[in-house]
What does this fold into?
Amino acid sequence: MRKLIIASLLLFSISHSSHFFVGETLDYEISWGFISAGNASMLVRETKNANELEIISRAWNHSFFKVLTVEDTVRTTVRADSLLPKVFNQKISEGSYKRNALTIYDFENKTVSIKDTAFSKSKRTHAIDTTLTLDGDERCILSAFYLVRTFNLKPGDTLFFNAISGKKKYKLKVICHRRETINTALGKKRALVVEPIIQGDGLFKAKGRLLIWLTDDEERLPVLMKSEIAIGSVKASLIKVAK
It folds into this structure.
């Protein structure tokens, strides 16, 4: 099995990352079994600062499926040339559970500032306010997700990232398992099946496995994400792409 150690490839030429994703909006339908439960979107846009992009991910449930009201928003500001994060902000609202996590990366001084507070039924469940030392290539889960799309993956490849989640530094492993042809709202697509193996609280944290289907072409569109949970399977299916 070939292994690509991302930590040593951060300055590797990312062939179209500077502007390739700018303006791209991905819209998803979230389903639980055969039930349409909600929607999600992922957007990449320019900021007012040069060599900087903002990635925004949102998820919400349907008004008629409000066993638990969900309104989650994750934003990260990254360098356009390397996709290294500058600011990561996660705002979670799921029923009585609320969380606001802010991570500020300072690669010049090799530090990262983390403030993370969560409440359940108005009672604070945890509060983090700390500073960690950076090795120089740590990523948030969103910047890692988009960086994966820039690589020419093949079955058998394994990617490794240095990552930060909460107050933890860890290795994020991404395995490219196989190729599959699947039917999507955008038509039949040849796709690569990849699996991130995540430690700690990340954007795609799940109790079971998470599999992602990326189109086997230059766009590497994430056309399907599927997670096994205790009460079944949750899927996010790409239904629209705007650029």
Q: What stands out?
A: DSSP finds one helix and 15 strands in the chain. Helices lie at 141-148.
